[in-house]
């Protein structure tokens, strides 16, 4: 593949930057306002150190696991990210094929540029469907029904977006969202507005800012699929989620694209895990760029991690092959980290395998 063959997922980001128009690269790479949380999502991992165990038989490493009962090759999932056709002309179909080839679960975005049906028929695999609540409830209900009919196995309800975060790069670039095929004849993305991005105008027209805890009962009434809520950062909200009876939570700050100055997700993870106490699965989303990052999230109690931007950048740089390589790199790095840490299986990875800043404070007080 020549000299520019990336050796880690960060190098795919550089290739994607060269390959994409600025407007689209900024859309995928950017966060909200000062982008403080955007930087923190990645930086916070660097403050966590590993505590390896030596002289363990690591001749066989098993990374396989189950998520909601579905077998998968590794505790790594593809996060639902929007509009893959802005990264590659074939869009989510290629992402889906790469996920299937690597035997990992893909989350399909509500704002996908390929239809639910196109993705479902592209290949056989376990997939979850991400849902936003629209003011017109019947549209959200219809998307859930279509996902269910097309074999999607769970609903990832995004709960951190009653309004769209202020993404200043998109406003400056006057970012234009394509017409989303899933909503043809239902909603038009065409917005005639010279102020800022048409993404913002579209979101304010469609997203339902009144959607609240009581409405999850409505969602349960329109689907038999398990519901995971995506966008949980605090103990208080996890308690509510468990009371209302969801099948899992995803610790996420929307890739730092919504509220700026929320904590990095890896810093919020343990509060959620300690509150859940194993009662429901906790998935993790945000800032994963290395196998060591995956290991750290698992050690802090996540059942699996979701990967967003590295997948999109792989797609932009090298299509289906780029997505496959991004997943494979993270899997290979996780496998090596497990071996070097003395953990032949995922169940061997414990809280004692990492040291966080909170641990440092505790030790300094002792």
Attribute tags:
alpha/beta; eight-stranded parallel β-sheet; 43% helix; globular; two-stranded antiparallel ribbon; 12 strands
Quick recap of the structure?
The protein is α/β, with parallel strands linked by helices and 366 residues long. It has helices at residues 9-19, 22-29, 36-46, 92-102, 116-122, 137-149, 168-173, 198-206, 216-222, 235-244, 265-276, 291-299, 309-341, 357-365, and strands spanning 49-50, 65-67, 70-72, 76-78, 106-108, 127-131, 155-158, 227-232, 248-251, 282-285, 304-307, 354-355. Helix 11 (265-276) links the parallel strand 9 (248-251) and strand 10.
Number of strands: 12
User: What is the mean pLDDT?
Assistant: 95
Number of helices, where a helix is a run of at least 4 consecutive DSSP H or I residues: 14
H/E topology pattern: HHHEEEEHEHEHEHHHEHEHEHEHEH
Question: Which structural class matches the secondary elements?
Answer: alpha/beta
Please state roughly what percent of the residues sit in beta strands, choosing from under 5%, 5-15%, 15-25%, 25-35%, 35-45% or over 45%. 5-15%
Cα radius of gyration in angstroms? 20 Å
**Could you estimate the helical fraction of the residues in percent?**
40-55%
Strand order of the largest sheet: 4-11-10-9-8-7-6-5
Major sheet size, sense and barrel closure: 8 strands, parallel
Low-confidence stretches: none
Shape: globular
Distance between the termini: 54 Å
């Amino acid at each position: 593949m020549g000299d520019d063959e990336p050796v880690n997922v960060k190098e795919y980001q550089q290739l994607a930057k060269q390959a994409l128009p600025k407007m689209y690269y900024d859309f995928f790479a950017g966060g909200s306002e000062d982008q403080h949380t955007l930087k923190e999502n990645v930086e916070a991992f660097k403050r966590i150190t590993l505590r390896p165990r030596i002289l363990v038989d690591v001749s066989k490493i098993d990374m396989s696991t189950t998520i909601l009962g579905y077998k998968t090759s590794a505790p790594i999932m593809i996060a639902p990210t929007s509009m893959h056709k802005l990264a590659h002309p074939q869009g989510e179909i290629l992402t889906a094929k790469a996920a299937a080839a690597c035997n990992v679960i893909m989350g399909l975005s509500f704002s996908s540029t390929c239809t639910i049906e196109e993705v479902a028929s592209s290949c056989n695999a376990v997939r979850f469907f991400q849902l936003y609540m629209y003011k017109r409830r019947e549209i959200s209900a219809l998307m859930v029904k279509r996902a269910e009919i097309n074999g999607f196995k769970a609903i990832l309800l995004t709960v951190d977006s009653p309004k769209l975060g202020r993404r200043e790069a998109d406003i400056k670039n006057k970012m234009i969202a394509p017409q989303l095929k899933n909503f043809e004849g239902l909603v038009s993305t065409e917005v005639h507005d010279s102020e800022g991005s048409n993404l913002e105008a579209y979101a304010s027209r469609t997203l339902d800012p009144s959607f609240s805890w009581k409405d999850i009962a409505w969602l349960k009434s329109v689907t038999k699929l398990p519901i995971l809520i995506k966008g949980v950062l605090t103990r208080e909200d996890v308690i509510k989620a468990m009371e209302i009876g969801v099948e899992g939570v995803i610790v996420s700050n929307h890739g730092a694209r919504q509220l700026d100055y929320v904590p990095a997700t890896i810093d919020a993870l343990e509060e959620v895990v300690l509150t859940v106490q194993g009662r429901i699965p906790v998935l993790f989303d945000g800032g994963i760029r290395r196998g060591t990052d995956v290991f750290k999230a698992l050690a802090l109690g996540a059942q699996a991690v979701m990967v967003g931007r590295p997948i999109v950048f792989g797609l932009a740089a090298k299509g289906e092959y780029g997505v496959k390589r991004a997943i494979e790199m993270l899997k290979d790095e996780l496998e090596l980290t497990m071996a070097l840490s003395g953990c032949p299986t995922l169940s061997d990875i414990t809280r004692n395998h990492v040291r966080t800043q909170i641990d440092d404070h505790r030790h300094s007080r002792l």
